[in-house]
Design brief:
The protein is mainly α and 325 residues long. Helices cover 70% and strands 0% of the residues. It starts with 12 loop residues before the first helix and ends in a 10-residue tail after the last helix.
């Protein structure tokens, strides 16, 4: 009688081949999935390398040179461009204008967007129409917005000043008085608050109504409900718009350039409207100081990175995530 061996080392070769073949097929399937994932992602990867990573690395190199597209020779100048940033008075002016605008525009956008979203949440069936109406300014070309507000903010016969005079208030010279240029620009940018309204409106619709019912049973008034329920429950959306609007404000360019620099305006009015990205653009494409403009771009990148990092770190104290920490 033949006795079958139970020693695992004496197993038949066929059984080992079968197990290894199954493992090999599993590895092949994973590799095939990875390959298809890379194929579907390849348009984005190629676009990112060509249109984002490549130009960023090239501009980083240019920031250490005196590159001028009209001059055949390019010299390596080290950190001279970065040193010049700290001695250029226009850098200080443009940074101050940009920071001033950001400090007032970001809270103004958040508060006005939240107020409009709260009103929109109460209108019922008409919410669809008002969502579209609020968002329309965001799809208007930026150059057209700048041209429109040249008419609206005209100090002599603009609609804004006509409305102010109708209620007995003097209308300032929005476009010529340096003290009123930045407030006028803030008013103009608040006109396109629609995207923030839509984000807050969607967040408000996701707040559980049972929380408000429980709060009313406990005797909470409207302000207490807003402070203790609404704001914490939509704090994630507020945090998102805080970051997005801060970055957009620090990069303000098109509308202001169309209003004040399309005709090469200079002097005190032009200085009051000299935002950082506008000065960067002029160095690059008017003065052809590409190396210096690249250094300016990397300085702005660093400033935005630091501000965003601080916002993310401090968000842990006030942003509430329902399913998170």
């Amino acid at each position: 009688m033949a006795i079958r061996s139970t020693d695992p080392q004496q197993q038949t070769p066929g059984s080992q081949d079968s197990g290894s073949g199954a493992g090999h097929r599993r590895i092949t399937n994973r590799q095939r999935e990875l390959l298809w994932a890379l194929i579907f992602m390849s348009p984005w990867i190629i676009g990112f390398l060509i249109f984002m990573a490549g130009p960023m690395l090239w501009s980083l190199w240019l920031s250490f040179t005196d590159y001028d597209p009209l001059v055949p020779n390019t010299n390596f100048v080290g950190i001279e461009n970065y040193q010049e940033l700290f001695s250029d008075p226009n850098i200080r002016t443009s940074l101050w204008n940009t920071v001033f605008f950001t400090i007032f525009n970001v809270p103004g956008t958040i508060l006005s967007g939240l107020a409009l979203a709260l009103l929109l949440d109460k209108v019922g069936r008409a919410a669809g129409f008002f969502r579209t109406a609020f968002y329309m300014p965001n799809i208007t070309p930026a150059v057209a917005v700048g041209a429109l507000f040249l008419l609206l903010l005209n100090g002599r016969d603009g609609i804004v000043n006509q409305a102010l005079r109708a209620v007995g208030l003097p209308g300032p010279s929005w476009l010529n008085d340096p003290a009123w240029i930045k407030p006028g620009i803030i008013v103009m940018m608040l006109w396109s608050v629609g995207s923030t309204v839509i984000i807050y409106f969607a967040a408000l619709r996701n707040v559980p109504q049972v929380l408000y019912e429980a709060a009313r049973v406990d005797g909470a008034n409207a302000w207490q409900q807003f402070r203790r329920i609404t704001v914490p429950m939509i704090s994630g959306a507020i945090f998102f718009t805080l970051i997005i609007n801060t970055i957009a404000s620090l990069q303000l360019f098109t509308e202001v350039y169309a209003m004040f620099f399309g005709s090469q305006q200079s002097g005190a009015a032009g200085e009051a409207a000299l935002f950082y990205v506008i000065y960067l653009f002029r160095n690059a494409f008017e003065f052809f100081n590409m190396g210096y403009a690249s250094a300016m771009a990397w300085l702005l990148f660093a400033v935005i990175g630091v501000i965003t990092f601080v916002q993310v770190k401090t968000s842990k104290r006030w942003v509430y995530y329902e399913g998170g920490e």
